């Protein structure tokens, strides 16, 4: 015998007592879909064909959903990127507390330091890899010779390639790097006092001690001959002692 049963679409169909209508829950549709969704299922028509039909329909809807979602996702990503960029550019002026901005600056500085460290480590790794493999260019030694020419004005020892272009091919080249061809003249250094000259040039134990501790002696004597206008009224009141000099500071030595 056959009995009639109502279908959710308002239509009726004749099905066997041995067959039952079970709802198939599909999350994408958010509702229950019954087999068959429409029309009458003949006894010769298998349930798998109806399932395949609905499955194809669901796949088509999912493809359409992906087709719509992809550009929306791209727009959302672009909007997020623009938002982040604006916050980076105008973050100091809008809606970012000072403490948060300082923390962001610290993190950015730390990130930059890490990137530099990674870059240096990669360079060292590549350098060692090239050294181990031997696959690096060999640069030939280029000998430029010895500085065998002397400036006729100041007596500086120079290379011929350092001479002026006008005199480079002549037998007596002239040089401009040392004294601008005699235009710059430095007076000879004055000889130090006899005692200081003895400490600098003698081979005695006192001279050797002086040369070994010359920086200390220079620091000790740094303010012994200072000249300037001392402000003595600044220490008349209360407070710590202050050494104040006004005007030009000079040494009397």
UniProtKB/TrEMBL annotation:
Name of the protein described by the UniProt record: Uncharacterized protein
Organism lineage: Eukaryota, Viridiplantae, Streptophyta, Embryophyta, Tracheophyta
Record organism: Linum tenue
